[in-house]
Amino acid sequence: MNLLYARAWYSKALALLNLKNQIGSENNFEKALEAFDDVLEVNPEDAVSWQYRGNTLRYLDRPEEALEAFEKALSLDPDNIPARYFTGLTFGYLNLPEQALVAFEGVLERDERHAGALYYSGISLKQLSRNEEALDAFTKAAEFNPENIRAWYYRGAVLSALGKNEEALEAYGKTILLEPSHAGAWEGEAKACLTLGRGEEALQACEKALELTPASADTWETRGRILECMGDKEEALKAFETSLLLESGNANLRVEKGKLLGGLGRYREALEMFESALQLDGHLIEARICEGKALLALGNHLESLDSFNKALKIDSKSSEGWSGTGSCLLSLGRHNESLQAYETALSLGPEDSCTLGGLGEVYYKLGNYSEALDTFERALRLDPENAFACNGRGNTLCRLGKYREALETYETLLALDYESLPARYNKGVVLSRLKSVGNDFEEVFETQLQAAFKKYLELSGGLPEEKNENENWMYRGLAFVELGEYKEALQAFDNAMKTENEDVSPWIYRGIVLICLKRYEEALKTLEGAEEAIYAAVSAEKSGEGERKREKEKYGAFNSAENKSQLEMLRNAKGFALDALGKREDALKAFESARRLSENGVIAFFGKGLVFARCCEWEKALKAFDRILIFNPENTQASVMKAFALIRLEEFERAADVLDSLGKEDVCSDLPACLQGFVCSRLEDFERALGAYRKAIKANPKNFHARNGIAELYFRLGNSRGALKELEASITGAPENAFSMNLKGRIELEEQACEDALDSFRRALALDTEDRKLLLWDAYARYVYAEAFFEAETARFRYMMLAAAGKLEKAACLRSEDNEIKAYALYFVGLFYCRARYFRKAVERLEECLELKTPGEVKKPAALLLKSIQTGPLRPTWWEWWLDKKNHGLLKKMGFGLIFLVIFSLLLAHPAASSLPIISWPESVVNHMFALAGTNYISWALYSREYMTLILFLLSILLLPEFRSVRQENEELELEILTPPSPDFNIPVTILEEFTEKLEKNLFSLEPMEESIEKLGYF
Prior knowledge:
The longest helix is centred in the middle third of the chain and has 24 residues, at 520-543. Helices cover 75% and strands 0% of the residues. Helix 9 packs parallel to helix 11, helix 17 (285-297) runs parallel beside helix 19 and helix 20 (335-348) runs antiparallel to helix 21 (353-365). It is built from 54 helices and no strands.
């Protein structure tokens, strides 16, 4: 009877509890407890009363006493299922899932269909993360009681945890079918749809959950995650902010909001969120790691490193903490330490794309490109959208010379991020490399190269002012250089120099740009300033004191290897500037200094070779190019320049051997093929020469040297029409090509097109006023034209001859070392004066010509013409003949004097002479000198006839030159007309200038741009 009374109070308390009457239910539970205590005083072995007493204590929130009561009941009745069941509920209330599970398993051993025990054992298993067993429990609970809403709901939750989201959706759907207002089921459905990538359905489910529970912070957080995955980050941020308004003390939610802000690039706001989360929970490792990532993204590398170190103090086995540490050390240039940190991160956790990307960058920095490539590819297999690893892979392939694969990689990166600055820039770099080394460089690549750099300049130009730092201006300058826009490049490097940065690269690049602009004095001044800055930095590093020095020593801010590379580039640039200024000795010293700083000194040796070539010291130039080939026998450019030097030394056989040693692809490029054609032409292997020239034209249709070579060969072989065709193409491609014009004129003269020839020679001379051979041909063409179209005695003919002679007088005034051209010029001047009937001037020029060390081909016609003039129009009188200084002048003068003295003496000795007052004295002397033997005087009386005969004979001897042969007036002069020497067809020295310009541009050392380290800190 007393037990019924106690149970009545217990039942009344439960009824009031169900009616939400908390105070009334509590009072009745107190009375029920008193009643059960009275029953147990009477009958302490009543197991049912102990069971009810435990339930009452449980409702009164006295779980420990309740457990004692249930234990007593079970000791009295081990098969008391309700006591075991309520024991499990009490352990669950105390958050002791393991003990609760034991109790529920005891119930199920006795009643396997006990729905409550199945459900709550599932809850305990879920708390213990034994999800497979929990799923089995919830499934059975739902089977035994299909109306159990909570069993269906938790079945869905466990299925979601197991990744079985399709089945989870079915469970949530059953829950919602049983109870459409079940907010938890709607939220669970939203999360499952989100995991399945069904964003719109997830958002709709979440909106329904929010309608039911608008104040649920968790649901607003779920909405934020859904919107973030759908790409609507701004709305997602608003959802997280609403969630924080509802639950401001949620540190984890602050971390989530901070991660979203970090994903939006709002790093300072993200950092504030992480710091506020740490204020709430200083041991929250995720907040500490995210703080490090935000600081890293802001460029605060030392503070970031400190944050990651604090995270590792919380959990020394945090792979993410070690990965962040590796990223900080990488940004500080401490590559070996960074390598160790990344390897530790990978050893503590599964492979992570971000960590592998950083590790690949470390290998790249250390020059281990094969390992870097493998690591970047492992990162991309885990996350194909890892922009950092994708760019790193492209850069590594570029370093390995796999340019086409690198190009494909950058294209992939652009597909991921159309506005990626590194991808844009690096695409241009790799196309530039393909252009410089590849013989299959397609025309479309040239367009892509231009487009890549232009797009990079467009995108980088739109960056906020605070982001236009030294590095950005540097890359913009290099992009302008590749586009040939040197003035814009100069401005970009000037802007880079204005930023507060110790890097002297902008100074060096500025100097190189000034060299490209041919402003050599300014370039030299800029480079010397840069060199002083480098030496000052080195000096400060060696002698500096205080915190700054310690920081540099600790974090490696001063990189001696980098300074060495900068000095090498600087001194090579100085060498080119000094060479252009004509300071050859200083240029050679600069190149030699650069060579000592380099492993192989390729550019330095090239520079020295070019300096020697300009000084025509071809043997020394040859040695310089040979030194390059010692380090790299495959260097095509060095082989080509070696062949060029051998051609200048006229060692055509050796030059042919060098060109033959080149690979087939190399010889198919225009310059080597052109040189090969020239060499074969000199070796009179005309068929092979023509083939080589044609290869050069195929490789580069604008190579007018090759077309000139073919034309010259055709001309020598008598194919005038073919030669003219090639020359027309050459002139069209290079209108300032004097050799083509001259050869065209020579062919036109041969074809008797005199007027066309005159025009061609005139244009050739206008293009190259320094070449005296062109002046000779121009004058010769005038002569041929006048002879062909005008009568010799006309004024027009004489005018043209005098005009041609006047022009050639310039060539006749050359220095003595130009004897050959001067001899030709004097010969033609003499010829033209002769044809204009200016004989005395003609004789003067011809005599001057013969006085020189005149070549045989000029001496003979010049002497013949001179003789013809002298024995013709300018025949001298008899006394001029005797007194001529040219031919046997001394003998003739002595003979003339002797004959004249004898005649004078005989006439003076005549008796009549003694009567003259003045003559009497010399007459006595002569008589005495010429007296006959035994007498003191000449006897005119005895020998007058003999004396007169002797005098007449001697006079006839004196007058004998008057009776030599005389040319008739209408008789032509004896002429042997020469043609001027042909301008030598040679590979011009201007190739040196073209080659120098390429080397100067190569000084910019265009390297791939590295992705920002901030991309390693994914939030």
